[in-house]
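Aim 2 progress update. The chain analyzed this quarter is reproduced below.
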Amino acid sequence: MRIDLYPCKLGILLAASTALWLGSATASQLVMSDGGNAAGMLDPLARGQGPAEATEIVETPANLRRQVVSYPNGQAGTVVIDTAQTYLYFVLADGKAIRYGIGVGRAGFAWSGSETVTRKSEWPDWTPPQEMIARQPYLARWMAGGESNPLGARAMYLGATMYRIHGTNLPATIGSHVSSGCIRMLNADVIDLYDRVNVGTKVIVLPYRRPVAAIVPAAAREAFAAQPSQQPRASRIN
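Predicted structure tokens:
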């Protein structure tokens, strides 16, 4: 008896072709889901970015986005905060640092000095200090951690002070002087920094100096720039 195997062979070929097509389509989706750059999935600056956090960064001005910059002064592993420019630096080796955009204390709430990270917390609860409640009596007395919490995704507590480096539920305030002295970051950025620092990490908050552009008329800036800088250098306070 003769058995015709042609239909079976045809079926096998069709199944194999379908599997290859599906595999190719899946691989294409994986690449395109990262904006056409698969290497971006391994980028250490992309850590901590879920969908919401990625949206934060896209909507943030370019100068306030997380980036590696030249930073010749400072000890590796130290956090340096420049409140005037609304930047936080995590100092790396070889004259580099990761720079993050931040929100800082509004007028009357700026501070400077050196502290250490004494505690770290993920999705922290928030208990406003009595001083803040006195100024803003409508505030909740306690709020559980979560996406609506003003402290955001992470918090790093500084010394015995009331100040923290923390996330935010208001990403549009990054780059502004709006807080009561705490340092706020995008949630994606504070998650990244949280993973880099340890309890005991040194945090230096530079003395506040208003940017020249904010206090000197445009016609006088060129002459001012020719004078020796009065800005403190990070190397002076290491």
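DSSP finds six helices and eleven strands in the chain. The chain has two domains: 6-42, 45-210. These observations will guide the mutagenesis experiments scheduled for the next reporting period.
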